[in-house]
């Protein structure tokens, strides 16, 4: 399963952006969104280190609310965390 993570653009240097989500920062390639370049403060959907599209802030919030619900349900069921959920 592939999962995109909504992140906010904090800084841009050429085709690389420093993005943040939930207190975690990552360098993200903007190469795939050249047709609609994001600006500082915009939200992007990130997959495997690449911004794959700009998204509205409401869409980013909705995605994180859903991800939080999934993680809470996983914890309440005492399910072993999946890969990447150490």
Secondary-structure blueprint:
Elements: E1 5-13, E2 16-21, E3 24-29, E4 43-47, E5 50-55, H1 57-76
Antiparallel strand pairs: 1-2, 1-4, 2-3, 4-5
CATH architecture: Roll
Mean pLDDT figure: 91
The radius of gyration is 14 Å
Q: Write down how many β-strands occur, each being a DSSP E stretch of 2 or more residues.
A: 5
Which regions contain 5 or more consecutive residues with pLDDT less than 50?
A: none
Q: What's the end-to-end separation, in Å?
A: 18 Å
> Mind summarizing the main beta sheet?
5 strands, antiparallel
Structural write-up:
With 86 residues, the chain is an alpha+beta fold. It has one domain: SH3 type barrels (Roll). It has one helix and five strands; from the N terminus they run E-E-E-E-E-H. It has one helix at 57-76, and strands at 5-13, 16-21, 24-29, 43-47, 50-55. The protein has a five-stranded antiparallel sheet, covered by helices on one side. It is elongated, with a radius of gyration of 14 Å. The two termini are 18 Å apart.
Provide a short characterization of the protein structure.
This protein has 86 residues and is α+β, with helices and mostly antiparallel strands. It has one domain: SH3 type barrels (Roll), CATH 2.30.30. The protein has one helix at residues 57-76; strands at residues 5-13, 16-21, 24-29, 43-47, 50-55.
Q: Which features does this protein show?
A:
86 residues, alpha+beta, SH3 type barrels, 5-stranded antiparallel sheet, 5 strands
């Amino acid at each position: 399963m592939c999962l995109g993570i909504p992140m906010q653009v904090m800084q841009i240097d050429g085709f690389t952006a420093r993005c943040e989500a939930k207190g975690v920062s990552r360098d993200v390639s903007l190469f795939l969104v050249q047709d609609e370049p994001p600006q500082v403060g915009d939200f992007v959907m990130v997959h495997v280190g690449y911004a794959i599209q700009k998204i509205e802030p409401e869409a980013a919030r909705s995605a994180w609310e859903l991800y939080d619900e999934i993680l809470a349900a996983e914890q309440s069921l005492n399910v072993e965390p999946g890969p990447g959920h150490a």
